[in-house]
Amino acid sequence: MSATAQTAVEAKPFETIEDWTNFQLKRADYQALVDHFTQYGSTQTRENTFQPHHSLHKPPRPSELTLSALLASGAHFGHSESLMNPNFMPYAYGTRAGITIIDLDHTLPLLRRAANVVRGVAAKGGTIVFIGTRTDLRAVVRKAAERVGQRAYHVGEKWLPGTLTNKLVMFGPEVSKKEQVIPDLVILLNPIPNIHAIRECAIEHVPTIGIVDSNVDPRIVMYPIPANDESTRTAELVAGVLSIAGREGVALYEEELARKAARAKEVQRRAQRAREHIEDPM
Fold first, then answer.
1. Would the pTM count as exceeding 0.70?
2. Cα 271 to chain center, whole Å?
3. What does the alpha-carbon distance between residue 167 and residue 128 come to, in Å, rounded to a whole number?
4. Angle at the Cα of 152 (from 245 to 75), degrees rounded to 5?
5. Does residue 28 sit within a domain?
6. Where do the DSSP E strands lie in the chain?
7. What is the phi/psi pair of residue 95, to 5°?
8. Which domain holds residue 244?
9. Does residue 156 fall inside a structural domain?
10. What is the residue-wise DSSP string for 67-134?
């Protein structure tokens, strides 16, 4: 009997008490076999082992990030040795087969520093913009902005020149005066194609965080993260870590707002009691 025919037979509804009893016995035998052989098998599951989608949907916290995670994402691969920017030399470990190898011992602390910046900006109620204009980065920046919350935005298409420096034309005079159109922090996953955004941030004094590869001058952004800017997995990991830090900052901001509201309510209650005592001293 084939597996399909056997499944069809087992799927038939129970007609007698004996059918139900046989089903219970068969299930008990199967569970006994599972319990017996589990101790001799592997304990790896999809939850406790690395999966390619984890960097996008389950990024680690900045304090939990490891060198092995960066290595697994391919963050150490740079460009050709002949294309290395002279200012990138402090972040280069060496070369292999003509390819620059990025020193992840620099990448890890700089990424954690950037995470602290994101957390601090979010904790003060600042707005954050994630920019990734490659096709494979659109889902990354969208997921990162959604993880941070309402104070975060993303740009997955082309950056329109003049978005910050010509905001009166881009947004209109009324919106520019009433709304905050200048962000407090900009995170770039591919800085070179978005050099116009970097220049506008510099003009408007907006701090920037960016993934810089070996062919990029790290000085173009305020907080560089030396890593492979052509790897989707590296971008997912970096954006995920920074968005987790942003979410922590938003939680701190909401706690501070709750404390301020509680203090204001307490002051108002005490003032009310004082007024009642003055009006009715007896």
1. yes
2. 45
3. 17
4. 50
5. no
6. 77-80, 92-96, 99-102, 128-131, 152-155, 185-188, 208-212, 223-226
7. -130, 150
8. 66-251
9. yes
10. HHHHHHTTTTEEEEGGG--GGGGGGEEEEETTEEEE-HHHHHHHHHHHHHHHHHHHHTT--EEEE--S
CATH number at residue 90: 3.40.50.10490
H or E segment to which residue 7 belongs: helix 3-10
Domain count, the chain: 1
Task: Classify residue 29: in a domain, yes or no.
Answer: no
| Eight-class DSSP state of 2 | -
pLDDT tens track, the chain, 282 positions: 444 444 444 567 778 888 889 999 999 999 998 888 877 877 777 677 766 777 777 888 999 999 999 998 999 999 999 999 999 999 999 999 999 999 999 999 999 999 999 999 999 999 999 999 999 999 999 999 999 998 899 999 999 999 999 999 998 888 888 888 999 999 999 999 999 999 999 999 999 999 999 999 999 999 999 999 999 999 999 999 999 999 999 999 999 999 999 999 999 998 888 887 777 665
Q: What is the amino acid identity at position 158?
A: K
